Amino acid sequence: MTNIEVKTRVKQYQIKIMINSLHHLGTLVTKVWCARQVAVVTDTNVGPYYAKLVTDELTAAGFKVRVMTVPAGEESKSWSQVQSLINQLSAAHFSRSDGVLALGGGVVGDLAGFVASIYMRGIALIQVPTSLLAQVDSSVGGKTAIDLPTGKNLVGSFYQPDLVVIDPAILVTLPPRMLAEGYGEIVKCAALVGGDFWQSLHQITSVAAILPAAPDLIAASVAFKARVVMADEHEQGQRQLLNFGHTIGHAVELLADGQLMHGEAVAIGLVQVCRLFAAHGLAPTSLTSTLKARLMAVGLPTELPPIAPQAVVAVMQHDKKVHGAALTWVYLSAVGQPHLYPIAVKDLATWMGDLWSVS
Amino acid sequence: MTNIEVKTRVKQYQIKIMINSLHHLGTLVTKVWCARQVAVVTDTNVGPYYAKLVTDELTAAGFKVRVMTVPAGEESKSWSQVQSLINQLSAAHFSRSDGVLALGGGVVGDLAGFVASIYMRGIALIQVPTSLLAQVDSSVGGKTAIDLPTGKNLVGSFYQPDLVVIDPAILVTLPPRMLAEGYGEIVKCAALVGGDFWQSLHQITSVAAILPAAPDLIAASVAFKARVVMADEHEQGQRQLLNFGHTIGHAVELLADGQLMHGEAVAIGLVQVCRLFAAHGLAPTSLTSTLKARLMAVGLPTELPPIAPQAVVAVMQHDKKVHGAALTWVYLSAVGQPHLYPIAVKDLATWMGDLWSVS
């Protein structure tokens, strides 16, 4: 088992990465929670596979479990699901001493985390991410969120869990497309870190190669992310580096209207931001092809879909990462050498124009 | 001007108490905020009096102001108002670098504070409380909330403002009933603190006597509350003392269905909790009449309205202050001598029964 310790200003907790950890969940949870009611929030995809195992584990450990299932998919990151879950907690008389366990991918983690953060001004939370993307990404850092029609993750909170349990064994039930998606996030982390982590990706020449390497790749990604988050909990400095590939990625994801998964959009964003900064002379051209090769090895998309440049720019102007009149980009001058680069919102269209002229 | 410094784990800010501080709001705000968009959230009672002054002050200081008005009254602490305000912020392209200024009583402070805490995972907040109750109570401590049909303040966050500006001069526009309500909260603080603060209340023999004493009474109450909050930001220990009178108060308020103001319900709660603990031999009987005299001097109610004991108990079982199977009460063994006292939820009905038998 890999244990990664996260210390924030308000909380200290562990991320446990272990094959079959789900089969020891009761024991793991009793180390951080005394007996209480637990709302296991899951979705219609994950629930049928693991809700019973989790319920049995927690019940055997003395917890009173109530499973709350939301429809699978990004649409559940909505006000109506927040209200529905909160009404269920209230109807079941959940008190401040009870807890929420998020069992699912990023959507469930974001939604259940947000609900836990605002019900009675915050009740205890444990994250059990079940997708590769959620295991390497959204379960670490305390970000919770729901979407608005005007953009993703526009409402949410920073809220740290008491424990994160990651079981790489359950990735076998993931469709290949979702494995590849999560791997895109691992490529992002490795490109930011460089060194051995980056070198280790050369063994991943297909989606099938991800599974056996998953425990190590997850541990390396999570350890990196935990380091960054500890240094900058509220995303005012270094943590912005984690947005590498997300500026274009978020916009492309929104405009693709459900046709691209988050990790796929980020894969496109990673390659395109490298290309953009290469066009501006701030990054070597070779970096674009290097990154592209790693992502294409598992079949991830790297080229922009046919969308109007103006539409991408318009979406970016509404990005949460806009601070005042500037949008802060992340680029690499080499693998392992990330930098922040603010661009005035009014100059975005001109600056981005180069992207379409060179691609 | 009285300056009270509040230091929490995540933020340090000042509470400024000064006659006519609203006329210097621009200058005060520029000390904590650089130029940005500001959403002034107010309600249909307060807006007509002060929204223009606040807008002029902020505009002259270089801020871009947008006034957002909600209907006056507790009903605005609702999901629909949260969504409406967030949609307005999003439509106006508010970014993480912009801010919310809450201009109003407790409802506006709770609602606008909650919105500020979740929009883009938290944007800057300034509290300008305009009712006496909000000035002494809800603007200090970082509690934000909305209500659910099942209870008050069941959804919310702990979110600290960058600044709190209190102008006792604007209390002249308050109806006497609201002045008395806020004074009830001052009596609560003074009873917890004791000493000179408590003694100073003997000069308040009518509602009219509140206004000239307001700056000192507010300063003493806020200083006390700030001390407690600094020691226990997330209400796990000492901060629970501030719930003195609220256990019965909240239940009575809910059951009175809008007929009692919050401070009136708390006044009843203060006297009844003293009576209850006296009946159980934990407090002197004289304390009940002492407290009652201070509250009745300004016409506050102190006796239970005709409601069924079972109803009060049923509501209490759903109180946020229920931890596991116990509800933690606050009682005084003497003025200035508060204590916490947990009672098992299953014993509440029996324990409370004494209240009706002795009153």
Automatic annotation (TrEMBL), chains A, B:
Alphabetized InterPro entries for the sequence: Dehydroquinate_synthase (IPR050071), DHQ_synth_AroB (IPR016037), DHQ_synth_fam (IPR030963), DHQS/DOIS_N (IPR030960), DHQS_C (IPR056179)
Positions of Zn(2+) binding: E185, H246, H262
CDD domains noted in UniProt: DHQS
Residues the record lists as binding NAD(+): G106, V107, V108, G109, D110, T130, S131, K143, K152
Ranges annotated as spanning the membrane: none
Subcellular location: Cytoplasm
Domain of life: Bacteria
Cofactor binding, note field: Binds 1 divalent metal cation per subunit. Can use either Co(2+) or Zn(2+).
Keywords on record: Amino-acid biosynthesis, Aromatic amino acid biosynthesis, Cobalt, Cytoplasm, Lyase, Metal-binding, NAD, Nucleotide-binding, Zinc
Domain 3-dehydroquinate synthase N-terminal: 68-179
Enzyme Commission no: 4.2.3.4
Reactions catalysed: 7-phospho-2-dehydro-3-deoxy-D-arabino-heptonate = 3-dehydroquinate + phosphate
Function (record text): Catalyzes the conversion of 3-deoxy-D-arabino-heptulosonate 7-phosphate (DAHP) to dehydroquinate (DHQ).
Family: Belongs to the sugar phosphate cyclases superfamily. Dehydroquinate synthase family.
Protein name per Swiss-Prot or TrEMBL: 3-dehydroquinate synthase
Originating gene: aroB
